[in-house]
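Write out the 3D structure for:
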Amino acid sequence: MSQRSTGEVQRLKANSVGLTGVVFMAVATAAPITAMTGNLPIAVGFGNGTGAPAGYLFATLVLTVFAVGYVAMARRITAAGAFYGYISHGLGRIAGMASGMLAVLAYIVFEASIVGVFAYFAQTTVHDQLGVDLPWVLYAAAMLAVTAVLAHFDINLTAKALGVMLVAEVAVLFAVATAVLVAGGGPDGIPLEPVNPKNAFTGASAGLGLFFAFWSWVGFESTAMYGEESRDPKRVIPKATLISVVGVGLFYIYVSWMTISGNGLGKSVELSASSSPLDLFFAPTHTFIGAWAVDAFQWLLLTGSFACGMAFHQCAARYLYAIGREGFLHPALGRTHERHGSPHVASVVQTVIAVALVALFWLTGQDPYLHLYTLLAILGTMAILIVQTLCSFAVIGYFRHHHPEDRHWFRTLVAPLLGGIGMTAVVVLLVLNMETAAGTAAGSVFFRLIPWIVGAVFFGGLGLGLYLKARAPERYEIIGRIVLEDAAERTGGGSGTDGPTDLSPSTSTANV
């Protein structure tokens, strides 16, 4: 593989985070407690009913197959842009630019979306338990401020904070599920119907249930973004990705199955479709552990959503940084902090955008949960699912054109092909069920604009790529090409890290 020097670019601080830290960051973006409490009631009440755990089983299998091809790329390419770099190498620079813009859009809006659900949980919990009633925007502002401060420092600080919050939220869900299991279940015992694979495709709207199952994983792919900051990324990132996908999947199956078992089959559907869907979790928590655990559960909804939003902020900052250091958008985005090695400029820009989005919804009188959270989550999910789909096919192209000696019939062909087909099906599920997923927000102007926003960003990226190819070939050549070539050698704590570094972009002899 030839190399072409682009001069001095700045590198994120190496050796900042290990395997455990990367896993915490990835699982935090999936936000188990938010995913379970937000998505499972909809799946049970309006989707595939009590077959929802089987839906999580199906999603686990599809995403594991996707991850096989994804980690094959991660062993070859280490870059903060993740999807942006992978697709640029596998499907070409033009597709890479379009995908990079979509990924930036997704992670930018995800933070503001999670700020909305955090503000909603904070407002209701503080009111219910402390009797204090404050505007939701104050909680949103507090979260944005704390996130901005933490993101300014070494990624290891964020990883530690996320680790504490993640362990707490996983612990309460695991404790409730295990209490149900030990007690032998609820009125129906521990039925097997919820984990029967065929029941993933039954119910009032199986497609809706399956979509919400896949939605619960959004963010697991963020492992690759931390390659430059991890120890031995060629080993850490593949392991962290598979641990995140499979571990989160098994956890979702177990918790959803036991939650339904604790309530009983009929009662689970009734609670999920009621005006208080969180009772699907609060009822068994109260019954099998106690009232104090319900109070703790409510507070952990806050910390869990905060952890998720903070992790998405880190993702968005690294995408902005990756594109900025290649000279797109603005080169200042590609700067790193002299001491902390963090993408501090990109982080500030992300904070400003998130503040603007939250302010827009607040000033127009929108609800933090029904509008800010739901609409931006749908927008980001549509964008990132399209990028995941393209990434699967990029794996096939990459190993065919650049590393034919490493091609494998399953890892680099069958797995990514099946993963791409599966991801395509999920995109279709989203389109078919988007109005139902939006709920009362489906009547808003913003909801109707979502497909147009995604399309405009994607085709705008294609147009930019084509323009650069025709008018600025020297800039076109580096699209998605700044990767960390010495990553495999960086296993200790001493390789120069904090300042500017000559990072040569990888270029291929094949003109893709």
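Residues 1-7, 483-512 have pLDDT under 50 and may be disordered.
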